[in-house]
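Hi C.,

You asked whether I'd gotten around to modeling the 156-residue construct. I have! Everything is below, sequence then structure, no commentary in between.
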Amino acid sequence: MTIEDLLAREAIRDVMAKYTTAGDRLRVDDFVSCFTEDAVMESEHVPDERAFRYEGREAIRAWQARWLAGEGGTHGATFVRHHLSTSKIDLTGPDSARARTYWVAWTDIGPDHAGYYLDTFRKVEGQWLIAHRRVRMDWEADGSLFKSAVANTRPG
């Protein structure tokens, strides 16, 4: 492993942390800046009525703007904290990488839902960005405050 490899992995970890904190705090511009212009963000392993797929940075921005506006009564949480844990990052080229990262979201009820991200990263103009994120849900609490949130933030 080279110094360049270590620097790339750390830059990717930084993007993951920025995504998580920006999303939890509804900082839309910071959240969207984690993605390439042509990024895809989609769900996996959720019921069809809660599945989502957003293509392109502007579609991701519009989705986050709906969360910020509280459209559809997104959820009843007074706080959301996504915690990242194990993350395996594989550099696949000088400007590309894949990662698998486990996460759990905490809300007012405690552990609310959990899963992992399957990511493809691309280095664009010297900056590592998410090119494709699959959000895999493995578990949710019976009383999860997010059960209707994704469906409630779909476009009209």
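If it helps when you're writing up: The first helix runs from residue 3 to 24.

Thanks,
B.
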